Amino acid sequence: MTTAVFIDGEAGTTGLQIRDRLHDRSDIRLIQLGEADRKDEDARREAFAEADVAILCLPDDAARQAVTIAGDTRIIDASTAHRVAPGWTYGMPELPGQRAAIAKARHVANVGCFATGSIAMLRPLTDAGILPPDHPAVLTGVSGYTGGGKSLIAEHEAGQAPDFYLYASGQSHKHVPEIMAYGGLTRRPLFQPAVGNYAQGMIVQLHLHADLLPGNVAGYARIEAALRDFYAGDPFVSVAQSGDRIDPQAVNGTNRMVLSVQGNGTTHVTIVAALDNLGKGASGTAVQNLNIMIGTQEDAGLS
Ligand SMILES: NC(=O)C1=CN([C@@H]2O[C@H](COP(=O)(O)OP(=O)(O)OC[C@H]3O[C@@H](n4cnc5c(N)ncnc54)[C@H](OP(=O)(O)O)[C@@H]3O)[C@@H](O)[C@H]2O)C=CC1
Ligand SMILES: CC(=O)N[C@@H](CCC(=O)OP(=O)(O)O)C(=O)O
Predict the structure, then answer these.
(1) How high is the pLDDT of residue 155?
(2) 62 lines ligand 1 (CB under 6 A)
(3) Domain ranges (residues) in the chain
(4) What does the pLDDT read at residue 220?
(5) Strands ordered across the beta sheet of 237-240
(6) Domain 113-277 has CATH 3.30.360.10
(7) Given the DSSP bridges, would you call strands 138-144 and 202-209 parallel, antiparallel or unpaired?
(8) What local confidence, expressed as pLDDT, does residue 176 receive?
(9) Does the annotation mark 113 as catalytic?
(10) Does the beta carbon of 9 sit less than 6 angstroms from any atom of ligand 2?
(11) Among 114, 145, 165, 289, which residue has the most ligand 2 atoms within 8 Å of its CB, making it the best to mutate?
């Protein structure tokens, strides 16, 4: 039996990457619209009706509108529109109980790219009681320019962008609400993202004064052990040895995320998550969520 999948926004950065991961699969039939129809509401409504699952790869407002014409079709939304919305299941399979919730969900909100790295580092520590919920977390990160979709890609490829720059410096980044909700934080974290003048791949960092954590018991080893316990047996997330150079492009083209605990071994600790913003940060996780929803092997079409 095949599953009919409609990617709304297939011509965009995330949509194309999902299409590439699905188009050779014998268990998936892609419903595709031509250039003339891809933004036509009637054509899209028909495509939704024909699909078992639709994947929205659209700007937030267009994603909200798409839900209104999608009927009963199951949805995975790659945008930020529904990540903390009532009635939506958060599409981060690594979180406790989330695979079972995604498997039966009608509406799945795919996790954001910076949020993937941030929550992956925070949640094992809040669940283990190493970080209290009101911990004043400090997160930084850098992404390749494909993270900003077609418009940012055009700016960089025209040679009009700096080699490196900070943005969202007003502490207003759109991923903060989901980072708090699913990272287990009640206090708003500091989060400073950046863009590098390279296409793809990212790192996210969580900076900790480990000696100031409650009970002063959260040394480097305990933090690393909590991460290893949390991701034991996970198909895509691993904990690596600390190292001098961490390349944001190291896992490009894969659905993997590699965590490592850097620092001086005792007091000053930085946890690092390396992932592909278009892989584990977007399209890879969307396909992983699809696999879970349709009950096929979780890593089908993914490496
Ligand atoms: N890039 C990334 O790393 C990540 C992106 N996301 C999210 O995924 C979503 C898509 O992002 P991304 O692929 O980067 O963006 P792009 O700008 O590359 O692609 C968006 C696509 O949506 C199309 N589109 C816009 N409005 C409509 C509409 N009303 N009906 C049908 N199609 C429409 C655009 O058409 P046109 O080609 O004509 O512009 C474009 O093809 C966003 O919400 C983004 O925040 C999530 C995680 C990571
Ligand atoms: C480099 C860059 O601009 N990145 C995007 C995040 C991409 C992403 O994850 O967007 P979603 O929230 O839709 O998932 C940004 O910071 O707005």
Answers:
(1) 97
(2) yes
(3) 3-111+282-294, 113-277
(4) 78
(5) 164-166, 190-196, 138-144, 202-209, 268-275, 257-263, 237-240
(6) yes
(7) antiparallel
(8) 98
(9) yes
(10) no
(11) 114
Residues 280 and 267: their CA atoms lie apart, in Å, by 30
Domains 3-111+282-294 and 113-277 share a fold: no
The β-bridge relationship of strands 237-240 and 257-263 is parallel
- Is there a contact between 100 and 68 (Cβ–Cβ < 8 Å)? no
Our answer on whether the CB atom of 193 is closer than 6 Å to any ligand 1 atom is no
Q: Is 91 in the pocket of ligand 2 (CB under 6 A)?
A: no
User: In CATH, which of 3.40.50.720, 3.40.1650.10, 3.40.1440.10, 3.40.50.200 is domain 3-111+282-294?
Assistant: 3.40.50.720
CA of 80 to the centre of ligand 1 (A): 11
Catalytic residue (choose from 113, 195, 210, 218): 113
Residue nearest to atom 15 of ligand 1 (CA): 149
Burial class (CB in 10 A: 0-12, 13-18, 19+), 26: exposed
Residues in the chain, pLDDT under 50: none
State the complex-level ipTM.
0.96
